[in-house]
Each structure stands twice: as C-alpha cells, then as structure tokens.
# Entry
Amino acid sequence: MDLRFVLLVLPLAASLIACGGGTSPPNPACAPGQQIECACSNQTKGAQVCRADGSGFDPCVCSGGTADAAGSAGASGSGGAAGSSGAAGSGGAGGSAGALDAATPRDVASDDADGSGLPDTGLTMEASLRDVALDALLDAISIDASDDVVAPPVDAPSGGDGGCLAALYLMIDGSGSMDMVDQGQTNTRWDNLTQAIPTFVNDPAHAGLMVGVDFFPEGGITPSCIVADYTMPNVGIDLIPGLSNAQSTAIVNAVAGRSRGGGTPTTPALTGALQTAKSWQIAHPERSLGVLFMTDGQPTGCVAEGNTVMGAVMAAQMYANDTPRIRTYVVGIGPDTGNLDTIALAGGTMKAYMATTSGAADVLKALSTIAVAVCGP
# Structure
C-alpha cells in the first residue's frame, strides 16, 4: 500500500468523521475511525475500522481483497463499558469481539437486481462523504498497488512490434462539461483533448502500441446507465499507426466527430470498458492491456445504479485483482475532477494524472507517460 495515499486519506476520514451528521450512541462500542488488528482465516493479519457512528467495527479486511466475517466489537448494555473485552455494565450484557468465520471474498458483482450490469452497492448520490472516505481507506488496505503508474508494470511484455507488446483502451468523457473553458485556458477541455490525441497516436515513439477508443455517455442528454451500452468500442483495438495510418486516422476522426452532452455515468462506463478489455485480453494473451479512463468530473446521474466514486473503485479493484489482470489508468481533465486517485489506486496504478493547468500539453504528457508504463521499458 502506498504511504502517500494513506497519509492523504486518513486526515480526510478523521475530519469527516469528527464533523459528520448524526449523534453517537450513548455507549459507543469503539471510537469512530479507530483501527485494530484482526486475524484472517489464511493465518495473516488484517485490519478493522470502527464505524462512523461508533456502533462497532466493520468486517476484518485482509490482504488480497478478502474480507473475513467478524462479530461486532460489542456495544455494552445500560451502564456497561463497551469494548472488545465485552464486560457488561449494570443491567447490560457486553458485546463480544466476535468469532471469525471462513474467509469470504468481497462479492462486488452479485445481486444485480436492476439488470444494469453494475454491482448493487447500496450507495446513492446522497451517500455521505464520510462513508466514502472510510470505504476508500478500507479498500486501500486490500488493493495490490505495488506498481506505480510512473513505473512500468512488472508483468508488461516488451519487444516485438515497434518494441512494445502492450495495448491501451481509452474510455473518453464526452459529457457537456467538456465544452467548458477553464480559468487561465483559451481552449475548451475537449479542444485540449482533440489536440493531444492526434499527436499521441501519430508519434513514431508509440508505433506498435495497440489502441482502441470509446466514449461516454451514450444516449445523449439522458445518458444510458446500462453497462452493456459501454461495451461496444467506437474504434476497435488495433496497432497504431496501422497500414497507411488507418488506425490512427480512425481514432483522430472518431474524437473529432464526437458530439458532447449529458452527464457523467462514470461507473457504468468504466465497468463496460473493463468488461471489453478483459474479453480482448483473453483473446490476446501476448499483449498487456490497460484501460485508460479520461474524465473531467465526478459521477452524475444513474443514481439508482450506484454511479458513485466508490462504485467505480469497486469495479476497478475487481478487474485489477482478476485473471487476466486489467489495470485502470486515470486522467483527469479540468479543475473539478474529484478524487480520481482512489479509482487509479483500486485499478493498480497508484494515482491519477491531472491535466489541469497546461491544456493540451498536459493531456499529451499524461498519455505518453501512461503508454510507457503499460508497455514496459
């Protein structure tokens, strides 16, 4: 786990807990935000975090994304002292530390009651930021994030076509806000992107890299919330520049011809891109494929489908821990991109790139750096 991320999240979680709404129970079982060590069924040590309302500890989170089911840390009875010791107060029975059950992996894709293809997270747009911060901290404990985005993944192959046997699948934000001009800029966010991508795909340094492109939202002003609508690439994954520059030209034309509008269905779009990438990776085991998610804002719309930052984090983590492994790289375009680092961390790439100050040059730098990371040296 990257220490920088923990140092970033811990103060945020603590401050949000301290000023969060609601009242604590009269006899809290633990101090909100308190972490304790717990035993995992695989004989390793995990961590539990006290809930924001002090009612008890969340389940034990173990390495590799496995959460062991554990009992509550125990709230005391009337007048009793709460805590792991379970000592009862006058008239009240104390809680026990809870016995560990067999390890139960986090099931992020089950119970798809609404048929959207998204994990039913139970979160809505009204979910408290306090809970998001705590969940991000828990996920950070279990994510395999040893490979930083600025360093090539250890399992990325090299050699072959153009010195690179890797691929990138770009999922690009085409929401209405991409037409905004940010303070200090002369071009819109979309203009910066459309200037950077042609340079990137036509750069001889990237010849032999395979690149595909899709966009979100689908459905125009009323975006689709269905994952399947984001599993059909606008330009399929192929070598750049391609025969007679055909692939690079197709990508440039797709970006130039894309109209903007609608909101930001982050979770359905990212989940669809990851599904597409996994299918492609299975068919092309000789390549190392990464999803590059480019967005200018936080999730909007698709509330019932769990379109939140944490929904996207769960999707990225699931595929980063899957076989074959699909990493998620993230580029934020504009000043109000939200906490994209949590998505990148969950996707195995440690941090997002923020192209927020230097326009097209920032976007191009991010694309080129990520291409090196996914390709290897």
Remarks:
- The longest strand covers residues 166-173.
- The domain at 161-375 is CATH 3.40.50.410 (Rossmann fold).
- The chain has a mean pLDDT of 72.
- The chain is about 30% helix and 15% strand.
